[in-house]
Amino acid sequence: MSSPHSETRAKRSATDPGPSIGTRVLAGAVGGLAGGIVFGFLMATMGMLGMIASLVGSNSAIVGFLVHLTISILIGLTLTVPGAGLLKKGLLISAVVGIVYGMLWWVLGPLLIMPTMMGMPLFTLDAGSGASLMGHAVYGLILGLVATLIIRRGR
Q1: Do 105 and 75 form a contact (C-beta atoms < 8 A)?
Q2: Which of 3, 54, 55, 107 is the most exposed place for a label (fewest CB within 10 A)?
Q3: What is the Cα–Cα distance from 25 to 11, expressed in whole angstroms?
Q4: pTM for the full model?
Q5: What's the pLDDT tens digit per position in 13-69?
Q6: Would you tell me the crossing angle of helices 61-87 and 129-153 to the nearest 10 degrees?
Q7: Helices marked H in the chain
Q8: What pLDDT, in 10s, does the model give residues 89-110?
Q9: 119 φ, ψ to 5°?
Q10: Phi, psi of 110 (to 5 degrees)
Q11: CA-CA distance, 123 to 24, in Å (whole number)?
Q12: How confident is the model at residue 14, as a pLDDT?
């Protein structure tokens, strides 16, 4: 037998459309940017921004940082626009979702997509791979937490 409170919650969740598309976009853009800035500083200390810039035919660290931030925002949007429901369940769940999402992008980005674009071997693990994995996990953590706070405010 269910309580009146659980029935009310079930009705509310069944009829709740979730955050608006504007809130989802804002959450992904701001969360992706926040995580991207932190991760970008880590990449700068490792001298990786020139390689990111090479994706657009440059070797400038500033161009690399701007490319990295653009990618960070787009990746943030690919989490929050379809997956905002996951991020409104609480900060702990959002932190875990964000970390796992960041780690997924570690596999997709530097291990698969970027080497493909640059004609390099795929899935190469080297000295920088651990730092890259950590950076992607931190990016995802920040994305998940910031996006959740924005989604909660946008209800």
Answers
A1: yes
A2: 3
A3: 26
A4: 0.87
A5: 556 678 999 999 999 999 999 999 999 999 999 999 999 999 999 999 999 999 999
A6: 50
A7: 4-15, 21-45, 49-53, 61-87, 91-108, 114-118, 129-153
A8: 899 999 999 999 999 999 999 9
A9: 70, 30
A10: -70, -15
A11: 32
A12: 56
Encoded tokens for 121: 């071997």
Which is nearest to 91 in space by CA: 34, 48, 152? 152
Copy the structure tokens of residue 95. Answer: 């932190």
Report residue 133 as tokens. 């994995």
Instruction: Reply yes or no on whether the pLDDT at 71 is more than 60.
Output: yes
CA dist 73 to 16, 37, 78, 111, 121, Å?
A: 27, 10, 9, 20, 26
pLDDT score at 64: 98
Q: Which tokens go with 92?
A: 């702990």
Q: Which residue has tokens 């976009």? A: 25
The Cα–Cα gap between 144 and 99 comes to 8
CA dihedral over 32, 33, 34, 40, signed as positive or negative: positive
* 3-class DSSP state of 86: helix
How does 25-34 read in b/e, with b if 16+ C-beta sit within 10 Å?
bbbbbbbbbb
